[in-house]
Amino acid sequence: MRKGEAVDVGARVPDNLKMFGQSERTNRVSEAIARRIKKQISDGRLTVGHKLPAERDMARQFKTSRVSVREAYRSLEELGLLRIRRGAEGGAFIAKFDHEPVRRSLSLVLGLGKTSHNEVTEARMLLEPTIARLAALRARPEDIAKLEQVLIQEEEEVRRPAADSSTTAGQFHRAIADCTRNVPLVVLMNALADLTAETVSALDVRIRSRHRRKNCEYHRQIFEAIRAHDGDAAGTLMLKHVGDIQDRVGRTIKQTGRNGMCGPTANPKRAGAARGTANGSRR
Q1: How far apart are the C-alpha atoms of 75 and 38, rounded to whole Å?
Q2: What is the full DSSP assignment across the chain?
Q3: Is the pLDDT score of 28 beyond 80?
Q4: 142: CB partners within 8 A, 6+ apart
Q5: Which of 49, 72, 94 is the last residue of a domain?
Q6: What CATH number does the domain containing 45 carry?
Q7: CB atoms inside a 10 Å sphere around CB 109
Q8: What is the pLDDT of residue 53?
Q9: Range of the domain at 196
Q10: What is the predicted pLDDT for the residue at 216?
Q11: Which of residues 64, 94, 124 is at a domain's end?
Q12: CB neighbours of 149 closer than 8 A, spacing ≥ 6?
């Protein structure tokens, strides 16, 4: 399909949409347009860099208003499927696939959904050993080089007590997921890593430092198993590592009297401040 060429409209928007109010009708039509564009992206008919018709032209194709088209384009942009440029050379372009918006949405859902530490532990114990095993079997030389770089940076930070570990927190686990070349596993691993990092960040600095030292010891062993392409060893070590870190964090949560939740609701002080702000805004 050439740039600027009309998008296949397919079935016309149902006539029974007329019975709805204008706002609801706009939403329904914009959803229909967005679905049609997503279908053509998945079918390969719309590829990266393809410029979609202007709002006026697309509205004419769908026999609807420019508002509906604008809403459709905006929703696809939020999903990371479109890139909207302004100006004379602007327009709506098919974007390069990026699962970052999905990861952020999933992390937000898990965090705001009051996910418990026990639930995160179950998910990590089920997923991460399999991820490590696949990583050992599929890792390419460039993947192993990247993983080693992340590990070396982490080990250097552990040797410097005053170092800010936020730059490498969870990066080793994310890098292992990248080695699998499995997009669903990468998205899930990143969301879980976000949630875990949010929980650990609320712990005392000295406690975090102790956790990091222990984690690095496991990470070095897991890395060596992946470099040797030993899937069984990588999976077994990851199972022990996740069980150990989740147990240590769980004990710390109990000792500090926190609520056992992960994400934004994990820290009672933060949650209280948020409630206070919300209550204050109502006054």
Answers
A1: 11
A2: --TTPPPP--SPPPGGGGGS-HHHHHHHHHHHHHHHHHHHHHTTSS-TTPBPPPHHHHHHHHTS-HHHHHHHHHHHHHTTSEEEE-STT-EEEEPPP--HHHHHHHHHHHHHTT-BHHHHHHHHHHHHHHHHHHHHHH--HHHHHHHHHHHHHHHHHHHSTTS-GGGTTTHHHHHHHHHHT-HHHHHHHHHHHHHHHHHHHTS-HHHHHHHHHHHHHHHHHHHHHHHTT-HHHHHHHHHHHHHHHHHHHHHHHHHTT--SB-GGGS-HHHHHHHHHHHHHHH-
A3: yes
A4: none
A5: 94
A6: 1.10.10.10
A7: 12
A8: 93
A9: 100-269
A10: 93
A11: 94
A12: none
Q: Which amino acid is at 60?
A: R
Helix axes 66-78, 55-62, angle to 10 degrees: 110
pLDDT above 80 for 169: no
**Residue in this structure with the two tokens 């999933």, named with its chain if needed:** 106
